[in-house]
Amino acid sequence: MIRTRSALRPARTAAGVLLAAAVLSACGGAPAHQGAAAVVGGEQIRIATVQAKVGALRDATAAAAPEAAAQEQAGLVRRTVAGLVLDRVISRALADRGLTVTDGEIAQVRDADARLLGGEAALRRELLLRQGVAAADVPGFYRQQLGIRAIAAAAGQDARTEQGDTVVRKALADAGTALKVEVNPRYGRWDPQRITLVEADTDWLPAKRATA
User: Which end of the chain is less congested by CB atoms within 10 angstroms, N or C?
Assistant: First the structure.
């Protein structure tokens, strides 16, 4: 089993709850949104990027566990968009506090998890089948996890506690508001205060004006 200090810890902490449940949304409408799955701080996340990640995850799952790949994971595309947006929201929350997550820190925690599981291959399989993380996205997974821990720690809290969870949620809500997160309505609408997906009720692209 994985120890509680591991980034793969299954407890309901800020890391576990937010990464599992935070899904994204959108409002707005401008020609620049065409072809975008989301716009975060003026930066587009392209639909093609989402499709490529979803395809890679499906292929990896099919190769590792055909029986698991036989059933489409509900909300896979939406969760992929969520992860891409959350990357940017966490980065903004860290930057607002003058914090960073280094490659060395990621490598240290990743290596520790690999040792606990019996090697790098076992770690990748665990992340793929339990967390839905393809091999290419493993560093990003750890960057999110460690970013959440760092945000809580900056306020003198532990992300594994209720107080730490509250701190992280507030930080991510503020960051999402500042970034003006917009998500293509096919994936929902972002509520920055709830950090959750709600039904979209606005158009992504402006309606064409009628001609005389």
Answer: C
Spatial contact of 197 and 187, defined as CB atoms under 8 Å apart: yes
- The CATH number linked to 132 is 1.10.4030
State the total domains in the chain: 1
| Residue 143, in any domain of the structure | yes
pLDDT digits over 15-51, tens only? Answer: 444 444 333 333 344 445 789 989 999 999 999 999 9
pLDDT tops 80 at residue 131 = yes
Range of the domain at 73: 23-198
